[in-house]
Known about the structure:
The complex is a heterodimer. Chain A is α+β, with helices and mostly antiparallel strands. Chain A contains 9 helices and 38 strands. By secondary structure, chain B is mainly alpha-helical. The A-B interface holds A 4-5, 67, 73, 75-85, 87, 99, 232-234, 247, 257-261, 265, 276, 278, 286, 291, 294-295, 298, 303-304, 306-308, 314-316 and B 7-10, 12-16, 18-19, 33, 59-62, 76, 79-84, 86, 89.
Amino acid sequence: YKTFDGDLxxxxxxxxxxxxxxxxxxxxxxxxxxxxxxxxVWSEVTPLTFTRLFEGTADIMISFGKADHGDPYPFDGxxxxxxxxYPPGEGIQGDAHFDDDEHWTLGKGPAVKTRxxxxxxxxxxxxxxxxxxxxxxxxxxxxxxxxxxxxxxxDYNKDKKYGFCPSELLYTFGGNxxxxxxxxxFVFQGEExxxxxxxxxxxxxxxxxxxxxxxxxxxxxxxPTRETAVFGGNSEGEPCHFPFVFLGKTYDSCTSEGRxxxxxxxxxxxxxxxxxxxxxxxxxxxxxxxxxxxxxxxxLGLDHSNIRDALMYPMYVYVENFSLHKDDIEGIQYLYGxxxxxxxxxxxxxxxxxxxxxxxxxxxxxxxxxVPTTTQPLxxxxxxxxxxxxxxxxxxxxxxxxxKDGDYWKMSSRSDGKLSGPFSISGRWxxxxxVIDSAFEDLLNRKLYFFSGNRFWVYTGKSVLGPxxxxxxxxxxxxxxxxxxxxxxxxxxxxxxxxxxxxFDVKAQKIDKGxxxxxxxxxxxxxxxxxxxxxxxxHIYFCRDRFYWRMNSRKQVDRVGYVKxxxxxx
Amino acid sequence: WSLPLKSVSVTFPGDILKNMTDKQLAExxxxxxxxxDRVYRSDFQxxxxxxxxxxxxxxxxxxxxxxxxxxxxxxxxxxxxxxxxDVGN
Lengths: 570, 89
């Protein structure tokens, strides 16, 4: 490894970052997530924390730009230079810039996150089957409104899971229209536009008006990139037109003919010879996570390494299951010391304490069923530290409970925060199914609400009500499951599902008026497809996959971390 | 038998011009990523020869140090990469 001349480094360990803008290639939540994971790569091995700011000046300002983007080092169009970052310091130092002429993905082709539909914002599954045909891209087949959609499982006919794909007909990002969809045609400087345009801008980004007349209303947004759109050339954002004619020959697919660099391109009209409209075909793209992790290495003070497998090696290579190379770890620890997780986490040792715990005060006569004490190696599938994702995480009687496939673990709140379990769900709450999507405790009445699919149960001590349909609570029938719950004051609970949440009045047993509301509008900066939401020790946690986003009482995300290390303390 | 391929090269409108000779590509690369400037600045001597700069680049990127603009070196130079110079920051 190598550091910059003078060993440039931050003089504080609580480094801040801010995302100034987004690429049209990926949904903003995927970009947020990629950056958060990229920071985590470093904070896992050295005692640095990364806090995201939403305004003001952060140590690391992150932005996307094309060609000349405001610093002395212009990007160079598609491929070639992907990104750059400056070593630690004031001003532009520490900042990271990403070339938006690249196709940003998660490294394996377009990462198409859906909206609406019934798949809770899941990614498209390509290829997918629909009425006997296989689709490798989003399609408008089966719809009359021209909105592209995709299945989020391999077979739409079987699973019926779908969502809508990024399209300017569905939403915009950035701008000043709050994400409203484009209105076509729209008028800009007296001219009428039927599609997104780069006219009027010098940065090459495609935009549209969100009313009929931009000249009057001045509302606009940037157009998300459709996964079928070409990159670069002179038709960015348009789909390929197949077949097309090039030098008198007809092409049914992308070609590298006519180019010396072997890159695949296509015409975006039926005849390149007549219209000269073209662009590069969508490809695997570059993993924003991997590139960001590399650039953040620079932003923390690491220069390029000459170890080919190191993250700080200057050339891009896609790696499926990324882990930081020893060389990178040594480099960052040279600058900042060894971190909170310098060695691979060890599996949790099984709890051998017999239950019930004599120290426990159990006012509801609810105790964990006695499990045989064992000194045998724990079944790895029953080790909470080996699980990447829980069905739900919630607080019951002040203790964090982690539910997964018929089992649960709990984290003691009083002693040293020791994890105990697994316990059988059916042993303690016999009426419940094995998969619990969400649960909360009504503190007023000491009732426990459990949700699974579109049903719920209410436990008071050992007596149970349910299952009942969640429609009984006033929730719409379209809801597949409740994924998280947050107690808000006395007798109010926010119930999360998909990208929305509802406020439930526990006493009145109904949903309050004015709901649902969009999660990302009220809780900015957290994934809007979190699968666990809960409140613990004054913070709100949103979990997605292995990660959590922690929000403080001012609704600022003050920490992003691993469930495994920080909550389970593996 | 397939017909012999007749490659044509077209100038695509809007394409950021990258049609340069291998030599131009190498010179640009060596300058952009600090292999040539470094010695000039640090030693106040005349510019390092391209061969020495190539060797430095080959060492840094872990390929055989030939000092020649060979195929392996060109391949590395064409790979997508980070824009931060390799030397002389």
